[in-house]
Amino acid sequence: MRLAQFIRHAREQILAESFAYAAQIPALQGLAASVLRNHLPLVLNTIALDLEQPQSRTQSIEKSLGHAAPPAEETPAQSHGTLRARVGLDIEQLVAEYRVIRSCVLRLWADHGDPDRFAMQDTLRFNEAIDQAVAESVAYHAAEIGKWRHIFLGVLGHDLRGPLNAMLLTAELLERVESQGNGQAMYLIGALLRNGRRLNSLLDSLLEYNKATLGVGMQLHRETVDLGVECREEFEMLQRAFPKRQIHLQITGDTRDAFDKSRVRQAVSNLVSNAVQHSPEGSPVTVIVAGHEKAVEIITENVADPIEQEVLDTLFDPLRRNSSELGASSGHLGLGLFIVREIAKAHQGEVTASTADGLIRFKMVLPRAPKTA
User: From CA 363, how far away is CA 368, in angstroms rounded?
Assistant: First the structure.
């Protein structure tokens, strides 16, 4: 059987092995099967189609030198590279996906029967096609990463400028007030502190994002705490921060266990700030802390228009800033919901988003620590 025909014949088995590998990549763990599949089935079809086309020796050499005619429209491999960059795969992991496909196809084909007189030719053509797909994916992956890097630097410069200018202006006013002795110094000092804390929050968010992209992960300091008590304290601070909004808190069940209370409070703050920012003024925001047998759940609900599932799946990605991509609670860097996800993952839990009945609901599930004998 010629290799192109075999690829079509064994397509599902090849893809099954590829998906099994993809599911082990940290950035892809827990994602839907459709995300794991991505454009890989179309990439395989494109490779099979390429093998079926006649090709001269000169055309083969031109292709190997990267001189092949550019495609008229975006190829499946190019789309695959872009989308893998968006979910957090690095270049090494992207190339590894193709390495698995190459190995799987050649191994299964060899097991299928003895090689015929076309085996060498088909193998060379197949390797050319795989290399072409890798080149296309890597180029689009790098372009996507570069685009977000520029966006990130622009957002960072914009968001740091605001509190920094406010601090400088306040310092100048403080200098004038002190020289006049009119008693307004404490108010201005408070403004300086608020803007300083905001800058600190922005930099903390930046560091957390940087650690996550480097694969370091978030460090936890677990201790036995009552998340109901901790969330109530955070809730009272949030009420003072948003005095014009109705924020309701409900606590049910046993909410004591070993958690990092500081991180959980940070997650609650991000979720509530996100809800306040992306809901109509005067509408309520509900926070629910519920203790269950195996986990403690923290839920926020707020009024929102329906959101498509493909958009919901991206809400926890970093640097999402438009009206339908939420997450600007950590100083407006677009890292708020991303950090919530990292906090949940560090606790071996998860956070999800859903919409129904005019509400958007974020649910963070924090598993209880294993019982020791």
Answer: 16
Return d(Cα 321, Cα 353) in angstroms, integer: 17
Token digits of residue 74: 């975006």
Q: What is the pTM of this model?
A: 0.53
Q: What is the pLDDT of residue 228?
A: 95
Does the pLDDT at position 253 exceed 90?
Answer: yes
Q: Residue 250: beta bridge partners?
A: 288
For residue 354 the two structure tokens come to: 């859903």
For residue 372, name the pLDDT band (cuts at 50, 70, 90). low
CB contact at 8 A, 255 and 296: yes
Distance spanning both ends of the chain, measured CA to CA:
59
C-beta separation of 202 from 330 below 8 A: yes
* Neighbouring C-alpha atoms within 13 Å toward the C-beta of 323: 5
Alpha helices in the chain (DSSP H): 3-9, 11-22, 33-37, 40-52, 57-64, 76-86, 91-112, 119-180, 185-213, 227-241, 261-277, 309-312, 336-346
